[in-house]
Structure formats: structure tokens, C-alpha cells
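Could someone model adenosine-5'-triphosphate with this protein?
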Amino acid sequence: MAETALQLEHITKTIGGLTILDDVSLTVMPGERRAVIGPNGAGKTTLLNVIAGFLPPSRGRVVVFGRDVTRLPAHRRVDVGLLKTNQQPAVFRELTVRQNILLALLRGRHPLLGLTALVSLDREVQRQAEDVLEEWDLLAVADDEVRHLPHGYQRRVELAARFAMQPRLLLLDEPAAGLAAEEIPGFIERLRRLPREVTVVLVEHSMRVVFAFADRVTVLHHGAVLADGTPEAVQQDERVQEAYLSGAMRRGHA
Ligand SMILES: Nc1ncnc2c1ncn2[C@@H]1O[C@H](COP(=O)(O)OP(=O)(O)OP(=O)(O)O)[C@@H](O)[C@H]1O
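Reply:
Sure, complex below.
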């Protein structure tokens, strides 16, 4: 059988007597774009945190590219190619956009070497940074400190930086949150251009983003998997409509 990118086996998470995740199993194949959706409080962020290693599961296994990482802390999961973005962009706000990208390239390739020495010495890394800036349409703001940029740009810097670290499995926690409506199409386009060498698991409330990007959708409800299938199949599933989509539409998330 082909190696899977991610396997969750019977993941349960209880916090203070509450069951937040309830026997969640799912398999994501290499190159797949998987969306995890569900109503507020369904357990989506908790699930991403369990996959990334920020929260230990109470029961169950997390396997990334064939390796059981259940007991590895988050920073060690980077070694197997796993990276996560946050709901608030995790960027170095007082560094410039270019410095953020350089740092990400260096963390991805030369994690043990001194940053200053490498930036001055390694012209190859500097050239790669220019490529990343161009690819993500960030050249015009390359010398701006990230904290001075609008939220949509900060998101883009975060994604570009995560990408520069060459992950094999990228977890995106509500990447479209906070974007203005007119920023969404460009954002979707950029997500669609991500190379297939990278497997993506995305938690997202914007159905526009989910249906434009995901190959498969997993629906969580009260911490359990309610449905799992193609976007079309999931959209037509009556239980899903009942539990989630109609509610999301009523709340204006669609
Ligand atoms: N540390 C914690 N202690 C107690 N309850 C928690 C904790 N973390 C999460 N929860 C609860 O677990 C449930 C799932 O939370 P989670 O943030 O994973 O949901 P979500 O699906 O990501 O929601 P949203 O769409 O609103 O971001 C919620 O009811 C939340 O209140």
C-alpha cells in the first residue's frame, strides 16, 4: 500500500472531563488537499493541535509519512516535514518581509548554523529569498516591517515563510480568516498554486475556499467525524446540511 501522508487512528482528547475529540480516524494521501470543517466548537483547532504536537491526545496515534509521531513534541515534528500556520499569523513582526523569508529558508535548510554568518555568506539563500518574494508577490513590500502591513499581507508572508521551510505536510488553521472579500479570490489562486509535493490539511470556515481548494472534506461535529468524502458528496449529505452547512449559511459563512 502507498505510504500515507497522515494517519489519525482513534484520536480521543479529553480536557477536564470533557470529550473534545471523540475517536477520530482519518487518512490523508500524499499531495492531497484535505479540508476539515464543522460548526464552531466542533474540535477542528484541537485536532490540528494534536496533529502538530501542541496537544497530546488522550488516546490514539498520529502517523506522519509512516512515522508514529504521537509522542514527539511539536518542534521535533518539523523534522518529519510537518508545519502549521496559526489563526493569528505567526511572523516576526519587527523584521522585514525579506528577513522573515530569509529566516524561514535558513530554518528549513540549515537549522543549526548561525543566521548572520549565513545571510552574509550564502548568496544562494539570498537568491532563493528573492524567488520566494516574487512568487508570493511580496517584492514591493520586501523591506517593510511586517507589523506595518495589512492583515492580508501578513497572512501571505506567513504562508510564504512556511513554504520556504519546505514542509511535506502543511496544516493551515483558518488561513482565510480576517481577509477582506476581495482578497479571497487571489488567496484561493495562491493556495491552488502550491506544489503537490506538499500535502495540505486545512481548517476553514469559508466554504468558498473549501470548495475551491479541497480534494476531500472531513466534517467534524461534537468532536467526532460526521462525514468524509469529496466536497460534492459532503455538500449533499443530509446530516452535514443539518449539522453544519445550513447553520453556516444562516450565519453568513457560506
Ligand atoms: N483547553 C481547553 N479547555 C477546555 N475546553 C476546551 C479547551 N480547548 C478547547 N476546548 C473546547 O473544546 C471544544 C472544541 O474547541 P475547538 O477550538 O477545537 O473547536 P473549533 O471547531 O476549532 O471551533 P471554531 O470553529 O470556533 O474555531 C470547544 O467547545 C472548546 O470550548
